[in-house]
Structures are given as C-alpha cells and as structure tokens.
Amino acid sequence: MVEICLLADLPAGHARRVATDPPIAVFHTEDGQVFAIDDTCSHQDASLADGWLEGCEVECPLHASRFNLRTGAVDAPPAKFPVRTHAVAIEDGVIFVELSTDKPNLPPNIRTRINDGTTA
Predict the structure, then answer these.
(1) Which pTM value belongs to this model?
(2) Reported confidence tier of residue 3, pLDDT bands at 50, 70, 90
(3) Cα angle vertex 116, ends 79, 101, to 5°?
(4) What are the C-alpha distances in Å from 74 to residues 26, 38, 66, 68, 96?
(5) Rounded CA gap, 93 and 8, in Å?
(6) Can you list the alpha helix ranges (DSSP code H) found in the chain?
(7) Other CB atoms closer than 10 Å to residue 98's CB: what's the count?
(8) What is the Cα Rg of the chain in Å?
C-alpha cells in the first residue's frame, strides 16, 4: 500500500497527483468519498488530477473525456479505453492506495516512449 496523505490535507472537491509508475490521481469528492485512478488519460497525455471533478466523474482537461471514478470506465469520448482503478483505504485519518496490478491503458504516445526505453 502507498501512503498518500492525511485525509484532512486533501479537501473535498480536490485531487492529488501521486508520482507512482505510472502516476495515479487520488480524488476526494464533495460527498466525502475518496477514489484513486490512473492519472494519465487513456486518450492523450494529460493529467486527470488537473481535470474537473463533478460528482463521481472526472473530466480530462485536454479533450473533455470523462471517466467514472468508481469503475474507471469512459463516460464521454474521445477516450475509448478505461483507466485503472486502485483500492483506497483510510486508516487513522491517512489515505492509503493499493496499486492495481492490471496493465494500464496508456495513450499511444506514452506507450511508444515506454516501449523504446526513453521513459520509465
């Protein structure tokens, strides 16, 4: 499990990008729920933590794809592939994330950099 931060340090309605490999985004919804998904939009290289959080969805800041925070499913194009979700636990006021072992759906430009060894 990866320790993220104190719940009190992530206000409701906000997100935090976490530098895992690949990065994840942790969201604290207005109704107090906490979710973690892959931070990189599956359509193009954009940080979902920089997107717009509405209810249980995040809208990508680049091309307005929307992802369901519970399932990772695409709720609006142009993205076609879901993002991974990660299990969240809150213990003694601290947010922890259990990273998924599933293969991530990274956008083509990221996959190319990973495959040619120019990024970790």
Answers:
(1) 0.90
(2) very high
(3) 55
(4) 17, 13, 6, 7, 25
(5) 7
(6) 108-115
(7) 12
(8) 14
| Chain-centroid distance, C-alpha 56 | 12
CA atoms within 13 A on the CB side of 101: 1
Residues 113, 115, 116: CA angle, nearest 5 degrees: 65
34: closest CA among 25, 42, 43? 25
Confidence of residue 120 (pLDDT cuts 50, 70, 90): very low
Q: Are 104 and 83 in contact (CB under 8 A)?
A: yes
Closest CA to 28 of 42, 15, 45, 43: 15
CA distance linking residue 28 with residue 75, whole number of Å = 19
